[in-house]
Design goal:
CATH class of the largest domain: Alpha Beta
Distance between the termini: 19 Å
Structural class: alpha/beta
Strand content: 15-25%
Largest sheet: 7 strands, mixed
Length: 457
C-alpha cells in the first residue's frame, strides 16, 4: 500500500515572487504553517528482494553487452516486468526512452513486437544492431574479410584526415588514423547494411578505450597518463565478444521461432513520439534521472565520428533533464509537490531549480504522451528513482506517479527495488550537488533504491 503522509508545512515554505527581476531571493516568503498538504510518499514501501538481481550480471547476456551505456536498464528487471505484468493479449511493447535497446531485446526474446523511441542517434544505432540477429556464418565471413585488410593500413594515408576538430582533442594521431581506417573498411564492406552497422557499433564501443577519455569516468574528462590500447586489437577483441553474443541471440530466437518478430527504433522525442493513439499494449521504460546525465556529452565521440552532430551545444538542448535547456522559469505544471521541490531548491540554487522545473514539465508531457498511445487497459511500467540535491529531496517517482494519475492512469502496484549493479554514479557532493567519488568527505549515496510504477489505463 502507498503511504499517504501529511506534508509538514515547515519543511517547504510557499514562495511568492521568489525572484524579483534578475536579483536573488526576494525575501517575500509566506509560511504555510496553517496549510495542510497531503503528498504521496513512497519511503515506507519495503524493498522487494525479488527485484534486486544482485547476483545476476544479465547485462552480459544475449546482445546486452554490445555497447557500454550509462544507467543501463537491467535486462532481468525488464524480463520480470514482461513475464509478471503484461496485460492480456499484449502484442506491442514500447519504450519511449529506448536508450541502448534493453526493453526491445527482451521484448523480442519474449515474442512481442516492440517500438522504441529515442532522441539520440547513437542510441538508435546501438538498439538497431542489438535487436537484429545475423546468421553467425555470414558475420564470421565479414569479420575475416575486415581483419585481412589490417595489413594494408598505411598511417601516411590518414595523416591529414578531416574530421570534427573535437576529435583531435580526444584522440592522439596514431589512434585517430587507425580508427579512421576501421571506419573506411567497414564502409566499403560488401554486405548488408545491418552487417555494416554491427561493426560500426563495435568501433563505437572501443572509442572511449582508444581515446584520452578517463576510462573510469562517465563524464568527459582527459586522462593525461592513460595507456591507450591499439584500436586494431580492441576492435578484434570486442568483435569476437559481440559475435559470440550474436550467435547466442540468433540461436535463441531461431529455436523459439522469433527471428522475424518486428522491432523498430525511431529517432523521436518521448514528449511527442508521433506514434498512433491507442497503438501500444504496454510501455516499459526508465526515464532519465533529474540532472544526472548529459547523454549528448557521453556519446560525443561516436556522434562526431559518425557525423550525427556538428554542434554539441545545440544537440544538448534537445534532451530531457539537460542543464542546457535554457529554462528560466520556476513554474511547474500539474503537481503541487513538484512545485514545492523547485521552490525549496531555488532557495539554494536558482539555476538548479530552473533545471529541475524544466525536467518536471518535460516529464508531465511524457506522461500525457504515454496515456495517449496506450490502448484501454494497457499497462505502463516505469522504472524511476529519487535523489537528493543540495539536501533537498527530489521525489521524481512520486511526482511522475502524480503525472500519470492526472493523465488517466491508475495504480496496480508500486515496487521498490535496490540497485546494486545500476551502471550510474551513486555518490553526490551534498554541498555542490555534483556527482563525486567515495573519497570525498561530503559524498552521499543518492540512488540506493528505485521504484517500478505499474499503472493501467
Amino acid at each position: 500500500m502507498l503511504a499517504n503522509q501529511t506534508h509538514r508545512a515547515s519543511d517547504t515554505p510557499t514562495v511568492i515572487d521568489l525572484f524579483a527581476g534578475t536579483g536573488g531571493l526576494s525575501g517575500a516568503v509566506q509560511s504555510d504553517l496553517d496549510i495542510k498538504k497531503t503528498y504521496i510518499d513512497f519511503d515506507d514501501i519495503p524493498v522487494n528482494p525479488d527485484w534486486a538481481f544482485d547476483s545476476i550480471r544479465s547485462v552480459e547476456q544475449l546482445t546486452h553487452g554490445y555497447h557500454r551505456y550509462p544507467a543501463k536498464f537491467l535486462p532481468n528487471v525488464v524480463k520480470k516486468i514482461i513475464e509478471d505484468h503484461s496485460p492480456a493479449n499484449c502484442n506491442v511493447i514500447a519504450d519511449l526512452f529506448a536508450g541502448c535497446g534493453t526493453t526491445l531485446v527482451e521484448a523480442k526474446v519474449h515474442g512481442k513486437r516492440s517500438i522504441g523511441t529515442d532522441i539520440n542517434p547513437v542510441a538508435q544505432l546501438i538498439t538497431r544492431v542489438k535487436t537484429t540477429p545475423i546468421i553467425p556464418e555470414t558475420l564470421q565471413l565479414s569479420y575475416e574479410n575486415l581483419i585481412a585488410q589490417f595489413d594494408e593500413f598505411n598511417e601516411a594515408n590518414y595523416s591529414d584526415i578531416q574530421k570534427h576538430e573535437r576529435l583531435d582533442y580526444w584522440f592522439k594521431p596514431q589512434e585517430k588514423s587507425k580508427i579512421a581506417f576501421l571506419f573506411d573498411i567497414v564502409h566499403e564492406l560488401i554486405a548488408e547494411d545491418f552487417t555494416k552497422e554491427f561493426f560500426y557499433v563495435c568501433i563505437s564501443h572501443i572509442l572511449k578505450n582508444c581515446s584520452r577519455w578517463l576510462q573510469s569516468s562517465t563524464k568527459p574528462q582527459v586522462d593525461p597518463n592513460k595507456n591507450i590500447p591499439d584500436p586494431f586489437d580492441e576492435f578484434k577483441r570486442h568483435c569476437q565478444k559481440m559475435m559470440k553474443s550474436n550467435e547466442e541471440f540468433y540461436n535463441d530466437l531461431n529455436k523459439k521461432g522469433y527471428l522475424d518478430v518486428p522491432c523498430d527504433i525511431l529517432l523521436k522525442d518521448a514528449r511527442k513520439t508521433q506514434l498512433k493513439s491507442e497503438s501500444v499494449d504496454m510501455i516499459i521504460t526508465s526515464p532519465p534521472y533529474v540532472t544526472s546525465y548529459e547523454y549528448a556529452d557521453i556519446h560525443q565521440l561516436t556522434a562526431y565520428w559518425m557525423e550525427y552532430v556538428s554542434s554539441m551545444s545545440e544537440f544538448r538542448k534537445q534532451f530531457i533533464g539537460t542543464s542546457y535547456s535554457g529554462n528560466t522559469s520556476l513554474e511547474v505544471r500539474g503537481s503541487e509537490q513538484a512545485q514545492d521541490i523547485v521552490y525549496a531548491l531555488a532557495q539554494k540554487s536558482k539555476h538548479i531549480a530552473q533545471d529541475v522545473a524544466q525536467y518536471f514539465n518535460d516529464m508531465q508531457d511524457v506522461a500525457t504522451e504515454m496515456a495517449r498511445i496506450l490502448v484501454p487497459d494497457g499497462h505502463a511500467c516505469i522504472v524511476i528513482g529519487n535523489t537528493k540535491i543540495k539536501d533537498v529531496d527530489i521525489k521524481s517517482a512520486e511526482v511522475f506517479y502524480e503525472f500519470l494519475k492526472n493523465s488517466g492512469l491508475h495504480r496496480i502496484e508500486v515496487i521498490k527495488r535496490s540497485i546494486p549493479h545500476k551502471l550510474m554514479p551513486t555518490l553526490r557532493d551534498v554541498k555542490t550537488g555534483k556527482f563525486t567519488k567515495l573519497d570525498n568527505p561530503n559524498c552521499k549515496k543518492v540512488y540506493p533504491n528505485e521504484y517500478i510504477l505499474i499503472m493501467k489505463k
